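Researcher: Let's continue the batch. This sequence belongs to histidine kinase, and it's 342 residues. Same format as the previous ones, please.
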Amino acid sequence: MPEFSSELPLPHEPQQGLVERVYRAPGGREIPVLYARSDLRDDHGEPIGAVCVASDITHLKRAEGSLREAKQMAEEANLAKSRFLANMSHELRTPLNAVIGYAEMLMEESDERGLQGSVDELRKIQFAGKHLLGLISDILDLSKIEAGRMDVHLETFDVADMVEAVLGTIRPLADRGHNRVVVVCPASIGFIHADLTKTRQILLNLLSNAVKFTDHGEIRLTASKTLRDGTPAIQFIVADNGIGMTQQQLGKLFQAFSQGDSTTSRRFGGTGLGLAISKAFCDMLGGTIEVKSQLGVGTMFTVRLPYSDPHELSLSRRSGSFSRTVAEAARAAAARAAQLKV
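Model: Same format as before. Here are the structure tokens for histidine kinase:
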């Protein structure tokens, strides 16, 4: 007859609910058992007995072990995939940059010689090369995030200058779709201490999406300072009056390689990585990104990112202390970079 394992409590112990026990068979084999015990009481609440049930869960434990092993193998395969993409993306960018560079050199030379036909053809090569480079950069960013190799670099920068630099890239794209770009970013917004590259990339992705899905409309970018849970934050709102989205499309908006539907993908192109990367960057920086949209009316993204005041940061460094906000952001980034899955 099976015996109780000497390492575990016996079933007559006063416990309620479900408890796992291990029985040991005469041959020494351990049998995992799910043990349930419930007290029986009379009408006055006095205990009069108990009901005990023991179920053999050997098959359940084996299934759990198989699932754990499969999960570990899947995670290892995903990590290997991310590392492979990161390495391949880097190797692809090097020759592609050379192609773009030579195309630009040939464009200048053709322009000097008055060969306008050649300039137009070379411009197509340059545009296609830059488009491909952008796609590769997105894949590289995504693979770095998944592999936990994306770092946060904090620096002091002027918000208005950063916004103007982003608009320099977006305005030509907006002009092609006959869109008007409206910017509300007061110069008095001043300097902040945050991750410039990721903040700029988030805005570029959101504005690029707004331009892509809007025709003969308006794209509005609003930048302001606010508080988020008592912590200083910079807020960016990107709104458009483009095609908008349904609630079903909003549900999978931030998934990698996902777009609204197959029709959207065929008509507007793209890989569906921009918003996934923006969401990942917001998470890494300790911020948030929210979206509201209505089909046929438009879409509005709201991004809030924590920052440190450069003046307070300077004072804290002189006094030998370090900004609490920056320190917390760095710790959070280090933890999230290792765990983040897009």
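Researcher: Any comment?
Model: The radius of gyration is 29 Å.
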